[in-house]
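// run 5 | inverse folding | seed 20
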């Protein structure tokens, strides 16, 4: 797992850059939650490449399961996703809905994501 812990104005988050295998299952999320506890933060910025391709296919329910696990543990997550991935079919509808919440959001830029996380 390739990550950096970032701290700005006393607020900390983990930037997950890449993983050896894409995040696909709830156990993968539990590993990230343990990492957040070890680093004394409850916030993540995740690059879309660290997520399984199934995350973007709603019929697999991978996105819903992953998002729900982060919400259950009170971990705030911003995912950096290229616009063309967000704009695809039903995923766009889900993106609009989840971006209304306070725990998990999709952003096109790192700057926007960091502003929301902090």
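// decoded
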């Amino acid at each position: 797992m390739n990550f950096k812990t970032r701290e700005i104005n006393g607020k900390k988050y983990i930037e997950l850059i890449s993983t050896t295998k894409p995040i696909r299952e709830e156990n993968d999320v539990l590993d990230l939650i343990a990492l957040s506890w070890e680093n004394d933060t409850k916030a993540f910025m995740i690059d879309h490449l660290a997520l399984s391709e199934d995350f973007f296919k709603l019929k697999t329910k991978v996105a819903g399961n992953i998002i729900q696990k982060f919400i259950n543990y009170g971990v705030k997550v911003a995912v950096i996703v290229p616009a063309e991935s967000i704009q695809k079919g039903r995923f766009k509808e889900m993106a609009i809905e989840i971006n209304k919440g306070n725990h998990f959001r999709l952003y096109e830029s790192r700057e926007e994501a960091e502003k929301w996380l902090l």
